[in-house]
Specification:
Layout lengths: L1 H9 L5 H7 L4 H29 L1 H18 L6 H18 L2 H9 L2 H32 L4 H7 L2 H13 L9 H16 L2 H30 L4 H29 L4 H17 L8 H24 L6 H30 L3 H20 L7 H11 L1
Helix pairs in contact: 1-7, 2-3, 3-4, 3-5, 3-10, 3-15, 4-5, 4-9, 6-7, 7-8, 7-12, 11-12, 11-14, 11-15, 11-16, 12-14, 13-14, 13-16
Length: 390
């Protein structure tokens, strides 16, 4: 399921130039095919989480899997821009429906001593799917009919398999709370979460992060093609960012624990993203792997730290609702960023200004990160020393 979630999204950037010509679209319009599903994560994730509490996680995630598969397959039948964008949004509804349920599935199915390893498995799948989509979409197309429908078909297959296997194999967890209790508690939990200033600060940080990440990933192949890369090479180089992020996701929790602080793993990677954004538009094609690696390391550090902070800034009973709120707000950035990049490309003919904006966004992330209270194990020790010095 995790592998199927984001593969269809990241199969779009390598063939953006093909879709633009095939459907007579502007770059901004083409970006809707890529970022539209991200918007659906923002719109659907919180209601989907509440619906899950009412009908049970097997049915809720299973319905999301069906919508995911249907939306992916429907893209094959699109014969005009409107239908292609609409079908991409339907697929996005499935993503927004399933994505927030993955952590909850682990908590309900897995004993505590296995939860970390199972989370690692589906996290790797969340990375491998997009990385493969960037790297192999164009080569697979060229090896067959060479049409964009091959790409849509390729990334529909995992979603179809996941939906079929889900309804055949999955059973309802026995450890769920009674739905009636969840209905009563959700309103109270929402009020508590919305009144927590730290949740809003984390949401703003995550908004800036997803603005950067989806814009960087969505337009990287186009930028590399403008530097002289073939479509296949552009997709492969762009995928470096995600491949590098996989080991970082496993390494970062240990580094977080060893340092005992959280905020440096937000502002430090953001500074690296500022440098990468300013450098990537000025260097030659042969050196572009370096900023891709920098962003990959930063991506793994930031996403892991966000997940850790979600557990630390609210009571454990509010983590689910808080995650839904933060994800809903933050993925709005993942929708807006690529569209701004497309409009800039349509207006100026290049992406230079887009990457300057990304540097500004990451600078804002650094500023807000310093406003967030430190929650790491060493935070209280630092506060004590500062108080004594004062």
């Amino acid at each position: 399921m995790a592998f199927a979630l984001f593969s269809p999204i990241f199969g779009i950037p390598p063939i953006e130039h093909i879709l633009k010509e095939e459907f007579s679209l502007s770059h901004a319009q083409t970006s809707l095919i890529y970022s539209g599903p991200v918007l659906m994560i923002a719109v659907i994730s919180l209601p989907a989480g509440i619906l899950t509490d009412r009908i049970g996680i097997r049915k809720a995630a299973g319905i999301g899997a069906i919508i995911l598969a249907i939306g992916s397959v429907l893209r094959l039948t699109a014969n005009n821009p409107q239908s292609l964008i609409a079908f991409s949004f339907i697929y996005g509804v499935g993503v927004g429906w399933v994505f927030p349920n993955l952590p909850k599935l682990v908590s309900l199915w897995a004993p505590k001593h296995r939860a970390v390893s199972i989370t690692a498995i589906y996290t790797v799948a969340l990375y491998v799917g997009p990385a493969l989509a960037l790297a192999i979409t164009v080569p697979v197309m060229l090896a067959t009919t060479g049409t964009y429908q091959v790409a849509f078909l390729l990334w529909s297959i995992p979603a179809i398999i996941a939906a079929v296997m889900w309804w055949i194999l999955v059973r309802e967890p026995t450890s769920q709370e009674p739905p009636s209790e969840n209905r009563v508690n959700n309103i109270t939990k929402l009020r508590t979460v919305f009144s927590n200033a730290n949740v809003w600060l984390l949401s703003i940080i995550a908004f800036f992060y997803f603005f950067f990440y989806y814009t960087w990933s969505g337009w990287a192949p186009t930028l590399l093609i403008s530097k002289g890369a073939s479509a296949s090479l552009a997709g492969l180089i762009s995928s470096i960012t995600i491949w590098v992020g996989i080991p970082i996701v496993f390494l970062m929790p240990r580094l977080n624990t060893k340092l005992g602080l959280r905020k440096p793993f937000l502002w430090g990677p953001a500074v690296a993203c500022i440098i990468a954004s300013l450098v990537v538009v000025r260097i030659g094609l042969s050196a572009t792997w370096l900023p891709m690696v920098m962003v990959g390391i930063a991506d793994g550090a930031i996403i892991v730290t966000l997940l850790i902070l979600l557990v630390e800034i609210v009571d454990v009973k509010l983590v689910g609702i808080a995650t839904g709120v933060v994800w809903a707000i933050s993925h709005g950035g993942g929708f807006i960023g690529p569209i701004i990049g497309g409009n800039i490309l349509d207006t100026t003919g290049n992406l230079n200004l887009s990457y300057i904006i990304l540097a500004i966004i990451c600078s804002a992330l650094v500023a807000v990160a310093f406003k967030l209270p430190e929650t790491g194990p060493k935070a209280s020790r630092i506060s004590t020393v500062e108080s004594t010095n004062y």
